[in-house]
Amino acid sequence: MGLMQQQRPTSHDEKGHTNIVGPQIRKLRAARGWSQAKLAVRLQLNGLDIRRDVLAQMESQLHCIKDRDIPHFARALGANLAELFGGFGR
Predict the structure, then answer these.
(1) 69 Cβ partners below 8 Å, 6+ apart?
(2) Which pLDDT does position 1 carry in this prediction?
(3) Which of 13, 19, 45, 67 is the most exposed place for a label (fewest CB within 10 A)?
């Protein structure tokens, strides 16, 4: 008998998205009239070390957002955590 290889869980969905909150972050940021650079600075002031280009990738769902970082986005945007999920799972 051959050894069965375990499949490692992927960090993206079937469409290649690596997070579900990125589009909502973009929507909330744009509603405030902020640039990505401005949000990146606000996140940095909130204790999250992030560059504008990484934020752009997160908003486009091309970069993973760690669970522990999501509250930083909520605080920087003046939003609650539920708003970041934008109706996901309803």
Answers:
(1) 48
(2) 43
(3) 67
